[in-house]
Please model this.
Amino acid sequence: MFESIEEMFNYAKEIKKPLHEAIILREIEFNEVSKEYVLERLNKSLEVMRQSLKKSIEIDVVLPIAEAMEQSQRLLSKPYFLSEDLKESIYWGMSIAEYNSGMGIICAAPTAGSCGVFPAVLFKAQKMLKKSDQSILNAFIVGAAIGVICGNRASISGSEAGCQAEIGVASAMAASAITYLYIEDIDINYSDRIGKKISNSVSLALKNLLGLVCDPVAGLVISPCIKRNAIGVMNAFLAAELALSGVESIIPADEVIDAMYQIGKKMPSELKETGLGGIAKTPTAKKIAQTLLKNNIF
Model:
């Protein structure tokens, strides 16, 4: 697949195809599979996302950490500063993350710990922009490709590069997807305009969360992971808003991805999913871990 965002854009320009179609064609070529197979897998992942959102707001999830339960429900209160749409999207993102922590079936995007960001942003943008399911699939393809590039070029693992590689990359995937969703009907075929705005949305989303550590309480993907999905949702909308408004990143997206990886490699192991540093080592977190151990939770 693609090793850089620049390579992906250049390929789309070369074959004169819309970006989402160019991505599918490269997938077909790289893995030697049919278009039908690729679309089947994509639609399956997208449907899992839809179902995770639907079920997450229908089911009361029981979590091992009682203090973290039903936090998303509090987002059903009236908005104080945010619009109703943005507040609901945060609720969706946290709900899906809670659903994952309760062993519900989700689509890792790019990981299970960051699974709420992409679907919450994508489906909320669909509702806000009144876009078709086909447009959502096209945007999903672009966002997924950004995740693949981040994985190829750097990492999408909290244990390797911290939460910046999970929530950060999830935000970049979501931001690029809704940026494409907004402008795909304006520029049917690939253009530099689309590429520039998508690249900026990725850069801005990632830069906002560079250095974010992975410090799960008791080693569980619950706290602070669920609430970080909320931050990821807001960050994605912000990055897309900035990019579409014409705000540009001085540093190209591929270089930001490289910087994220370098930062991740320099992080101490205590801050990379081990539960040995950050908030996981606070007195309250230690008490929670001791309680779980005493109750044979793990």
Notes: The two ends are 39 Å apart (CA to CA).
